[in-house]
Design brief:
This protein has 245 residues and is α+β, with helices and mostly antiparallel strands. The chain has 2 domains: 4-96, Ribosomal Protein L25, Chain P (Beta Barrel), CATH 2.40.240; 103-187, Ribosomal protein L25, C-terminal domain (RNA Polymerase Alpha Subunit, Chain A, domain 2, Beta Complex). It has helices at 16-24, 46-53, 117-120, 173-176, 200-213, 226-244; strands at residues 4-10, 27-34, 37-45, 63-67, 70-81, 88-95, 102-111, 125-128, 132-137, 146-149, 158-160, 171-172, 182-187. The strands form 3 sheets. The chain has a 6-stranded mixed barrel. Strand 2 and strand 3 (37-45) form a beta hairpin. It is flat and about 125 Å long. It starts with a strand and ends with a helix.
């Protein structure tokens, strides 16, 4: 794995106002600590740092920091980002010692998901329960990532931490604590059932029922509209007048 170089310079001023002014000049305030040495405040070029942070390896590798004319090995430990801007506000680096173990989160790379029996034959979908794991190792043994082979994963089965092949000198912190957590699983996707659309027969029956509501029952006298009643009354009055004459 190629060594990633980071360039930093000592920072002479501290405080909220000083950090704000520093950011306006295109710099990022930071700090480097650890390895039984005093903590030192630093500053880095924002654009160069932001570009490096886009690489996955930058977050899980030993970095070679150039600071004040000296080289030191460090890990990126914390990053503070602006709530909505693509701007790095602050970074923390930790110095590492070659003979002291480090705890580090390392990304998981999944492979052979497409040929897993649970997917290819069973029609299941792989669910990544974990995307990284916390490991313990010496700095020189730190892997850039850990592969998870899903080639033999059956439908309804899972891959656990104990089944991962870890590089030499690397231990899972969770396993050391007795937590054999699930890393990935294959399950049948849940199907949301929808109400079936009404059939043509159902629509026809409903239409007949609506039409039947306006039809008089057999033997019943149909209701005569009010206007028709008035016409019949006028005709009856004329007949009576004619009879009197």
């Amino acid at each position: 794995m190629a060594t990633i170089e980071v360039t930093a310079t000592p920072r002479s001023v501290q405080g909220t106002g000083a950090s704000r002014r520093l950011r306006r000049t295109g710099k990022v305030p930071g700090i480097v600590y650890g390895a039984d040495q005093p903590a030192q405040v630093i500053e880095l070029d924002h654009n160069a740092l932001y570009l490096q942070m886009r690489s996955e390896a930058f977050h899980a590798s030993i970095l070679n920091m150039s600071l004040d004319g000296k080289k030191q090995r460090v890990l990126l430990r914390n990053v503070q980002m602006h709530p909505w801007k693509s701007q790095v506000l602050h970074v923390d680096f930790q110095r590492v010692s070659a003979n002291q173990k480090i705890h580090m989160k390392v990304p998981l790379h999944f492979k052979n998901a497409d040929v897993a029996p649970g997917v290819k034959v069973g029609g299941g979908i792989v669910s990544h329960v974990m995307t990284d794991i916390d490991i313990s190792c010496l700095p020189d043994d730190l892997p850039e990532f850990i592969e998870v082979d899903l080639a033999n994963l059956q439908l309804g089965h899972s891959v656990h931490l104990a089944e991962l092949t870890l590089p030499k000198g690397v231990e899972s912190v969770q396993l050391i604590r007795g937590d054999n957590a699930v890393v990935a699983t294959v399950q049948i996707p849940k199907v949301i059932e929808e109400e079936p659309a009404p059939t043509e027969a159902a629509v026809a029956v409903e239409g007949e029922a609506v039409a039947a509501e306006g039809t008089a029952a057999p033997g019943a006298t149909p209701a005569v509209p009010a206007a028709e009643d008035k016409k019949e009354d006028k005709k009856e009055d004329k007949r009576r007048e004619g009879d009197k004459r």
